[in-house]
């Protein structure tokens, strides 16, 4: 009886330790973080976000701005807040000329080399404009069922500089076209941007196809449906998933708090702590080419 009690006590301690470990942000990389300076309202600036993330044990951040490169911001944040890995990128929206391979080339030249991610169009994507029923100029990544030449040129620059390619707010069919072309051109790291969030809305079968092409499937805290996310994680496989926040909007949680809430929601859906760690630590690191 005494041994049984000891074994039960040990099991309880191990369970509590695992739960506590799952609650931490140690080693987590937020692959989708909005912050100031920006041309729209944000809840926190990049330096303060890096300080906060570092204080919570996070390994890194990928700073995203829909309208300009964040490579130089990443350089300055690293200088001001050593001890956290901060990366930037560029989105192929109209503010940078749309599908502009020259803008991507210039990003790679920014001091520090921390511009690591290239997103296909987001708010100016044809799919985004169609979904939101807006009447304004847009950027088309494909026409007549094939990627436009400029999209292929951008992907070529991504491959040349060993950057990470993201699909942006493209339609599921366009996402798959981008990934196929990325694979054809030898891109080593690809991510489907918030695959279950509007205006992308991939099906399980489409996510499986994307994963088969070598892409990670990004799931974000913003506008989360925990049950839907848990189903995708189980069916696609946690080894293919990245958890990120997509936070930075006023009146929403700050990024570390949102990430912890994300973990908690997934655990309540039965997702294992070890899988959450893989999706928030190991997979984002691989998607950035980090050890």
Structure in words:
The structure is a single chain. The protein is built from 11 helices and 10 strands. Helix 2 (46-55) links the parallel strand 1 (29-33) and strand 2 (60-63). It has an 8-stranded parallel β-sheet with strand order 1-2-3-4-7-8-9-10. A two-stranded antiparallel sheet has the order 5-6. By secondary structure, it is an alpha/beta fold.
Topology:
Elements: H1 2-23, E1 29-33, H2 46-55, E2 60-63, H3 71-80, E3 85-91, H4 101-109, E4 115-119, H5 126-132, E5 142-143, E6 146-147, H6 149-160, E7 164-166, H7 172-185, E8 189-192, H8 204-212, E9 215-220, H9 226-236, E10 241-244, H10 255-268, H11 273-287
Helix pairs in contact: 1-11, 4-6, 6-7
Give short descriptive properties of this protein.
291 residues; alpha/beta; 8-stranded parallel sheet
Query: Main β-sheet: number of strands, strand sense, barrel status?
Result: 8 strands, parallel
Low-confidence segments, ≥5 residues, pLDDT <50?
1-22
Tally of extended strands? 10
Mean pLDDT: 93
Q: How many whole angstroms does the radius of gyration measure?
A: 19 Å
Taking the alpha carbons of the first and last residues, their distance comes to 47 Å
The shape, in one word, is: globular
Task: Describe the strand arrangement of the main beta sheet, using strand numbers.
Answer: 1-2-3-4-7-8-9-10
- H/E element order: HEHEHEHEHEEHEHEHEHEHH
Helix content: 40-55%
């Amino acid at each position: 009886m005494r041994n049984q009690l000891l074994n039960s006590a040990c099991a309880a301690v191990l369970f509590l330790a695992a739960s506590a470990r799952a609650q931490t942000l140690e080693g987590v990389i937020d692959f989708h973080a909005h912050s100031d300076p920006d041309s729209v309202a944000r809840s926190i600036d990049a330096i303060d976000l890096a300080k906060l993330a570092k204080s919570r044990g996070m390994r890194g951040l990928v700073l995203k701005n829909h309208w300009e490169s964040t490579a130089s911001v990443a350089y300055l944040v690293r200088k001001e807040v050593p001890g956290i890995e901060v990366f930037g990128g560029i989105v192929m929206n109209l503010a940078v000329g749309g599908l502009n391979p020259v803008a991507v080339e210039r990003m790679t030249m920014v001091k520090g080399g921390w511009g690591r991610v290239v997103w296909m169009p987001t708010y100016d994507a044809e799919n985004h404009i169609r979904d939101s029923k807006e009447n304004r100029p847009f950027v088309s990544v494909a026409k007549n069922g094939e990627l436009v030449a400029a999209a292929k040129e951008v992907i070529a620059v991504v491959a040349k500089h060993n950057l990470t390619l993201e699909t942006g707010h493209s339609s599921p069919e366009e996402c798959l076209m981008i990934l196929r072309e990325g694979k054809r051109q030898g891109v080593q790291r690809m991510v489907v941007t918030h695959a279950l969030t509007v205006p992308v809305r991939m099906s399980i079968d489409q996510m499986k196809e994307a994963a088969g092409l070598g892409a990670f499937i990004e799931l974000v805290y913003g506008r989360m449906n925990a049950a839907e996310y848990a189903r995708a994680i189980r069916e696609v496989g946690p080894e293919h998933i990245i958890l990120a926040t997509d936070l930075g909007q006023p009146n929403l949680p700050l990024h570390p708090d949102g990430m912890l809430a994300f973990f908690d929601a997934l655990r309540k859906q039965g997702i294992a702590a070890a899988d959450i760690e893989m999706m928030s630590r190991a997979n984002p690191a691989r998607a950035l080419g980090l050890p």
